[in-house]
Amino acid sequence: MSLFAFAPSRGRRWPLATQAALGISVPIAVMTLAGQPALGYIAASGAFTVLFLGSAAVIDRARALPVVAAGLVLSATAGVLVAGNALLVSIGVVIVAVASAALAFGFRLGPPGPLFFVLVFGLSAHVVASSAIARLTYITALAAGCVFSYLLAVAPLVLPRSRAAAPRPLRELLPGPALSPGSRVLVMRVAIVAVLGVLLGLVIDPARTYWIVGSAVAVVGVAAARRAAFERGLHRMLGTIVGAGLYALLVLSHPSGLWLALLLGALQFTIELVVVRHYALALVFITPLVLLLTGAATGDVGSMDVAWERIVDTVVGAALGAASGLLHPRAAPKTT
User: Fold this and answer.
1) Start-to-end CA span in the chain (Å)
2) Count of Cβ atoms closer than 10 Å to residue 273 Cβ
């Protein structure tokens, strides 16, 4: 995972990128026109649903993605239930991180792993505590976004060739529960960085613990390798710093309404095209997307103080995630 080279292409990414872009932009556009933009920002988080099992056949995704959507809704529900209580949110971050990691690795869910379950929990708690949105309204909006994103993911089934494929059993798509030695180390790493991230967050700012832990979990990733941990940590730090600069440029246009919906869709489309080939470059676009989406939901769009906080949180979390890679044994030297 070099900073100066792209990984080989892994096939067509534009269908998944299009689904993810529509999943985030359409709810915002529709609810803005309906006079309820805040609900659109919440529903846009449901776009995370389509990011899972991207390489699986459409007919197989139709069977497995409801499980992912249910996990996201449960994570959000847990977040809104403890919103406003910093101690419970911190404890919840650890529980959600460890539980989602055990399930994601135990059932071989694949990338992006447990990351979005942690972020949805934290974002939900943060948005509900920072706004006047009712808890039930929040959950309903996010669930609606998950349903919409699911429909986008299975839309190709209208084509005969997509329906012609024989579906695989769900237990074959998500085999388990079983943790390999490498997966057990990954779960242990997630548990360690979650606890340490929360403790550091309580010192830095209790309201930001979920972002520190999320950054660390993102660096842990799904690869049980020491070198991958260090490389992902470096990519995340540098990508976030550059991404914060891009955010500063984008907010000069004062994005809101339909313009914000279009901008977020373009960012999400770009992210999905490049994330499997260059992680740092993807973070350049992920950072402004998350800052814009979170800021819109809480009324803080354009705040450079928030951008600076995200840089600090990401550096701390990425350092934790990279350091936890030392738990993996060194790769055996290559023999000639």
Assistant:
1) 23
2) 17
Are 318 and 233 a contacting pair, CB within 8 Å?
Answer: yes
Q: Which amino acid is at 242?
A: V
- Answer for the pair 114, 68: CB distance below 8 angstroms, yes or no: no
For residue 332, being part of any structural domain is answered with: no
User: Within 10 Å of residue 336's Cβ, how many Cβ atoms?
Assistant: 2
What range defines the domain where residue 77 resides?
Answer: 14-158+174-327
- Measured distance CA(308)–CA(289) in Å, rounded: 15
Which tens digit of pLDDT belongs to each residue from 157-197?
888 887 777 888 888 888 878 888 888 999 999 999 999 99
Residue 336 lies in a domain: no
Beta-carbon contacts of residue 85 (< 8 Å; ≥ 6 apart): none
Q: How many domains does the chain have?
A: 1
DSSP string for 94-156: HHHHHHHHHHHHHTT--TTTTHHHHHHHHHHHHHHHHS---HHHHHHHHHHHHHHHHHHHHGG
Residue 165 within a domain: no
Enclosing H/E stretch for 291: helix 279-298
Kindly report the number of other CB atoms within 10 A of residue 292's CB atom: 22
The candidate with the shortest Cα–Cα distance to 284, out of 230, 236, 234, 316, is: 236
Question: Can you count the helices (H) and strands (E) in the chain?
Answer: 14, 0
For residues 21 and 11, give the distance between their C-alpha atoms in angstroms, rounded to a whole number.
Answer: 18
pLDDT per position as a tens digit, 33-87 = 999 988 999 999 898 999 898 888 899 999 999 999 999 999 999 999 999 898 9
Six-digit token string for 23: 């999943």
209 closest CA partner among 125, 328, 128, 276:
125
- Percent of the chain at pLDDT exceeding 70: 92
Residue at 147 is within a domain: yes
